Structures are given as structure tokens and as C-alpha cells.
């Protein structure tokens, strides 16, 4: 077996190395301690001789070297210098320093090949500068770009452009701690699920489940990054990460059914959350109703208000809302109707709509009538009944998907690019999983939860006080309704 090796040898005779075969496929051995004399071996057959013969890398130098045969697979092989000839040139400190730099860059790329090579180079240069190292041996980026690119291409699979091309192997299937991370992949359904077994164990303990999706940082060829969170010991955490090509009822059902099977296999128990909080996506709601029939489905109150505000904008009422207090008051009362007891929602909406003041506003602003029709058609007598979006009996923690929205906002900032490559996305997932494991460990040992922002604490205290005043008769229903109107703008 012919091997083409490069060996760096110290003046004191020591020879240590690490192997890199990323760029050419041949084995290269680099020694990391200086000063050095640099040798390169001639062709040899390991099985036919008891020695390895080396020669100086400079063609004009006739120096040669003999070492024992050592096992390339050993982390620290015993290399013995048996014979060494004199060199006819000065020590190759600069060449060896550049080679050492290249090896460090290669090692960094091999550890995480999804990181752009320019960032790898910048991080290495910064670390050398901060550590007070010798920057003389750091070549300019344009001199090492091709070498770094070849190394990266040898360790990063091709970016899939079609769902049939998605194939995940090796460390892309595992967490940074080498735990199994890829839970399920089905190219026919266009579904990819990342979750560890520990994640599923924790998810099963959660009685409240939060679901939401984002599109901005979803890698091609997928179209949505869909996450499932659970309230674990009063902390909402992301336990399941899904990539989807479509958002039909069947796709959501397939994901939920897969999770039910996997959780049953791991825990020997059924997955039966008591409550699922999500946005008002019909396909997702239908899938949850089918696959988790015992769970109570609650719509996110933030998305409820958001959909009403978008309707206000679509009807051209945004300017009137900002300029006319009467229009603003009417729209806010509709948005705040979810704070009323569910038994009086329909009656009070009917009274609001048929009041003389509302009728005058509808005659003056034509869009208001369409706005009220939209609310009645969709959220009163339509697909989303009051039981789904009413929050009178809900506490502040499960009124909205704000914790999930915050997670996606932080995630988008972390990824920092729209539609990254699949491999960059998976690298960020592995980082996020490491953060999740730290958070779970902190919760398990009883560390206090992060403080919520003051505005949310004040809003919760205000809403609880208003509800208590209504229940004990200090405020009547109309006074309570008018007061909670000022809370909806916080969402």
C-alpha cells in the first residue's frame, strides 16, 4: 500500500502529528511543534520493509530521513527517528508555520463544515490575535480560500434542490453530544423531524402543548419550519422540530401520528396532552382534533387580535382607527370581547352591533360594517367558535403563543439569513438543542425561571384586578369591557 506522507520533525528528534486527508484523499501528517525540519517521503511499500524513508521537501536538498513504521490510526503513535541526514538550507519555520495554520483551519472546518469558510478564517485570525500568537504565519484569505473550499466540500454533502435529493447521514443525524437527533425522515411526505428521545420523554410530561410555524428561515426544498413546544415545569420549551414541504391536514396528521407512535415506543405510554394552543390554521386544528381528540384546542389570543387588525387594514380603516376615537373604541371592543365570560359574548356583540352609535359609525365608515360581518361570520358563527378564542377562564400563561413567537424571533435572528442551506439549518438546530438541554437541566435542579418583562407583569396584574372587580360587583359588565379594551393593544 503506497502512502504519501508529510512529516514535521523537531530539532530534538521528536515527531508528532495529526492526520488530514480532506483535500486530496491522500494521508498527510503534520507535526505541530517547532522549530522544524521538513521531510517528505518517497514512495514505499509498508508491507515489504521495516522502515519508512523520507526526503526533504525541497528538491535541491538531498537530506533524507528514516523512521520506524507506525500505525496511522493511532492518536499518538510512537515515531522513532532512526537516521537523519544534514540539510543544505535554513530551517523552514515559515513554511511549517503556514502548514500548521492550514491544518488548524482544516480542523475547524471538519468540526463544523456548515460554517462559511470566511467566518472560519476570521475566527481563527481573531483567536490568534487575542491569544498574542504570531500572526506572521497566517496567510491572507485569498491564498487559502481554495484549500479551505476543498476541505469543506469533502465534508459537506451537496445542497439538495429537490425533496428526493434529501439524504442525511453521519453527524448530521446526531447532536453535538452524539445523541440520536434525527427522529424521522420521509421524502414521500416531505417531512423531516428532529427530536431526541429525551425530548420526547419531556414532551409527554407536558399537559399544555404549543404549536407554530415560521417560513423565513426554512431551508429549501422545505417550505415551513414547524415547532412543537411544551410547558415543562412552568417553562415553555421547544422539544420537536419539523420541516414540511406542504401544510395540508394530511401533513400535520402525519407528524402528530408519527410523534404518537415514537412516544409510545419510548415511554410505553400514550401521548395525551390536555390542551393544545395554536394559531387559527384550519389544517392544523383539524389534524389536532383527529389525532389528539382528548385535547382542548385553544386559539392564540395574539393571533386572534392580529387577524382582526389585518382585516381593519385590508378594509382601509387603519387611518380612521388612528384619527377617530369612536372608530378606535369600536374596534378595540371587538378585539377585547374575548375577555368577557363566554356565556355573554354573543349577546353583548349583538347589543354592540345594533346600538345607535355603532349604526351611525357604520353609515359613515362603510368598512366597519364589513369588519363586523367578518367577525360574526368567522369568530362567532363560523369556523372558530368563542370556545376557541375566549380567554376569560385562561390565565396569562396560556392566553397566547407569545413564548413560541419569541422563540421563532430569536431563532430567525440566530440563523440570520433567509432560507439557509439545509446543512446550515441543521447546525443551528444542534446549537439550539444544546441550549435546550442546558435549560432542562436548570429547570430540573430548581433554578428560578427568567423574569418576564415588566410590561407583561403589569398587564397580568391589571387584568386579574379588573376580573376580580367584575366578579365581586365593583364594576358592571360594560365598565369591565371598556377597561379591558386598553389591554388588547399590548398584544
Describe the structure.
With 491 residues, this protein is of the alpha+beta class. Helices cover 45% and strands 15% of the residues. It folds into 3 domains: 6-155, no CATH class; 165-296, 2-Layer Sandwich (Nucleotidyltransferase, domain 5), CATH 3.30.420; 302-399 and 453-488, no CATH class. It has 17 helices and 14 strands. The protein has a 7-stranded mixed sheet with strand order 8-9-12-11-10-13-14, sandwiched between helices. Strand 8 (182-186) and strand 9 form a beta hairpin. Helix 11 packs across helix 12. The longest helix has 23 residues, at 422-444. The model is unreliable at 1-5, 10-38 and 40-48 (pLDDT under 50). InterPro entries: MULE_transposase_dom.
Sum this structure up briefly.
The chain is an alpha+beta fold and 491 residues long. Helices cover 45% and strands 15% of the residues. It has three domains: 150 residues, no CATH class; 132 residues, 2-Layer Sandwich (Nucleotidyltransferase, domain 5), CATH 3.30.420; 134 residues, no CATH class.
Descriptive key words:
Nucleotidyltransferase, domain 5, seven-stranded mixed sheet, elongated, five-stranded antiparallel sheet, single chain, 491 residues, alpha+beta
Amino acid at each position: 500500500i503506497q502512502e504519501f506522507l508529510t512529516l514535521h520533525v523537531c530539532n530534538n528528534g521528536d515527531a508528532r502529528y495529526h492526520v488530514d486527508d480532506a483535500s486530496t484523499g491522500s494521508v498527510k501528517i503534520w507535526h505541530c511543534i517547532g522549530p522544524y525540519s521538513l521531510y517528505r517521503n518517497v514512495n514505499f511499500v509498508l508491507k515489504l520493509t521495516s522502515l519508512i524513508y523520507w526526503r526533504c521537501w525541497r528538491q535541491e536538498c538531498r537530506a533524507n530521513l528514516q523512521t520506524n513504521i507506525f500505525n496511522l490510526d493511532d492518536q499518538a503513535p510512537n515515531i522513532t527517528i532512526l537516521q537523519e541526514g544534514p540539510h543544505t538550507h535554513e530551517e523552514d519555520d515559515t513554511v511549517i508555520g503556514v502548514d500548521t495554520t492550514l491544518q488548524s483551519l482544516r480542523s475547524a472546518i471538519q468540526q463544523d463544515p456548515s460554517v462559511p469558510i470566511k467566518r472560519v478564517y476570521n475566527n481563527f485570525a481573531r483567536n490568534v490575535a487575542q491569544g498574542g500568537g504570531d500572526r506572521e504565519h497566517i496567510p491572507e484569505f485569498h491564498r487559502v480560500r481554495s484549500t479551505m473550499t476543498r476541505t469543506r466540500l469533502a465534508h459537506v454533502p451537496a445542497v439538495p434542490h429537490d425533496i428526493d435529493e434529501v439524504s442525511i447521514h453521519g453527524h448530521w443525524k446526531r447532536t453535538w453530544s452524539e445523541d440520536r437527533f434525527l427522529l424521522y425522515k420521509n421524502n414521500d411526505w416531505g417531512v423531516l423531524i428532529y427530536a431526541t428521545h429525551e425530548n420526547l420523554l419531556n414532551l409527554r410530561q407536558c399537559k399544555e402543548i404549543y404549536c407554530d410555524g415560521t417560513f423565513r428561515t426554512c431551508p429549501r426544498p422545505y417550505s415551513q419550519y414547524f415547532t412543537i413546544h411544551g410547558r415543562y415545569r412552568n417553562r415553555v420549551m421547544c422539544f420537536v422540530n419539523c420541516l414540511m414541504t406542504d401544510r395540508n391536514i394530511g401533513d400535520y396528521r402525519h407528524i402528530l401520528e408519527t410523534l404518537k407512535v415514537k412516544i409510545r415506543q419510548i415511554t410505553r405510554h400514550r401521548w395525551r396532552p390536555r390542551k393544545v394552543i395554536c394559531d387559527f390554521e384550519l389544517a392544523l386544528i383539524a389534524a389536532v382534533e383527529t389525532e389528539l381528540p382528548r385535547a382542548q384546542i385553544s386559539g392564540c389570543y395574539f393571533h386572534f387580535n392580529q387577524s382582526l387588525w389585518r382585516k381593519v387594514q385590508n378594509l382601509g380603516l387603519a387611518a380612521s382607527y388612528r384619527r377617530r376615537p369612536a372608530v378606535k373604541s369600536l374596534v378595540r371592543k371587538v378585539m377585547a370581547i374575548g375577555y368577557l365570560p363566554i356565556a355573554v359574548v354573543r349577546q353583548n356583540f349583538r347589543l354592540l352591533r345594533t346600538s345607535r352609535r355603532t349604526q351611525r359609525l357604520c353609515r359613515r365608515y362603510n368598512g366597519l360594517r364589513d369588519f363586523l360581518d367578518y367577525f360574526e361570520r368567522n369568530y362567532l358563527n363560523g369556523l372558530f367558535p368563542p370556545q376557541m378564542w375566549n380567554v376569560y377562564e385562561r390565565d396569562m400563561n396560556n392566553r397566547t403563543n407569545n413564548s413560541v413567537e419569541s422563540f421563532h424571533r430569536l431563532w430567525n435572528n440566530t440563523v440570520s439569513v433567509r432560507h439557509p442551506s439545509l446543512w446550515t439549518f441543521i447546525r443551528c438546530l444542534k446549537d439550539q438543542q444544546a441550549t435546550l438541554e442546558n435549560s432542562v437541566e436548570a429547570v430540573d435542579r430548581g433554578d428560578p425561571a427568567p423574569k418576564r418583562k415588566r410590561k407583561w407583569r403589569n398587564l397580568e396584574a391589571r387584568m386579574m384586578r379588573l376580573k376580580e372587580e367584575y366578579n365581586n360587583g365593583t364594576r358592571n359588565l360594560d365598565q369591565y369591557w371598556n377597561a379591558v379594551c386598553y389591554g388588547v393593544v399590548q398584544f
